[in-house]
Design a protein that fits this description.
The protein has five helices and 14 strands. With 215 residues, it is of the alpha+beta class. The strands form two sheets. It has a seven-stranded antiparallel sheet. A seven-stranded antiparallel sheet has the order 11-10-14-8-9-13-12.
């Protein structure tokens, strides 16, 4: 589990490509203070396992399913990526619950300065937008952000200077893909309200029940 608070920007130092998979070698500084073999690291929001560590380099294997569902396939040697270690049990929960399991990709449409902030507009499909609400949370390339505007074709977030300088988002160009992970809470509520099989016992959690209890 992650929080979406990026710890540092790392660099892709090497890519060993298989027929449908890739092994990435990534450099950094901050995350290596206690990184161990088998630890989880969110790379642009994708939960990967550190399978080798050497100094300030770690390697991770990316399977075909992950490449197909994320924007990791577009990375090249020299690409910069957002890095976050798994949340420590005694750490501060500064962002929101981020699983590192990408729901899909979105396309960056525009970057618009607004005084000290930058508006970022993302085009996304219905599989993402169904869980996207104004003032709700979403992870873009692993960054925990608040949705400021949403409509039928996409959503917008406003990036403060600190987030802009500590992540890769503002270095992207219109047309580039980003990894999107919708808020876990919405997905679980939907599953409870609409069980996928008639064999599942009907849930006592209904829209009326949630409204009655302040949700």
């Amino acid at each position: 589990m992650f929080t979406g608070i990026i710890e540092e920007i790392g660099t892709i130092e090497g890519l060993e490509r298989g027929p449908r998979s890739v092994r990435m070698t990534i450099s950094g500084r901050v995350i290596f203070s206690d990184l161990k073999l088998g630890d989880s690291v969110a790379v642009n929001g994708v939960c990967l396992t550190a399978s080798a560590i050497s100094g300030t380099l770690f390697s991770a294997d990316v399977m075909p399913e992950t490449l197909n569902r994320t924007a990791l396939a577009a990375l090249r040697t020299g690409s910069q990526v957002n890095l976050e270690r798994a949340m420590a049990a005694d750490g501060r929960f500064g962002g929101h619950m981020v699983a590192g399991h990408i729901d899909g990709t979105g396309k960056l449409l525009s970057l618009t300065p607004d005084d000290n902030a930058v508006w970022v507009r993302i085009a996304a499909g219905p599989e993402i937008l169904r869980y996207t609400i104004e003032k709700g949370s979403i992870a873009i390339d692993g960054i925990s952000l608040t949705v400021a505007r949403v409509d039928e074709t996409g959503f917008s977030v406003s990036i403060i200077p600190h987030t802009g300088s500590e992540t890769t988002l503002l270095s992207k160009r219109p047309g580039e893909l980003v990894n999107l992970e919708a808020d876990l809470v919405g997905k679980y509520v939907e599953k409870l309200l609409h069980p996928p099989s008639s064999k599942v016992q009907p849930s006592r959690i209904t829209a009326a029940f949630l409204a009655e209890h302040g949700f």
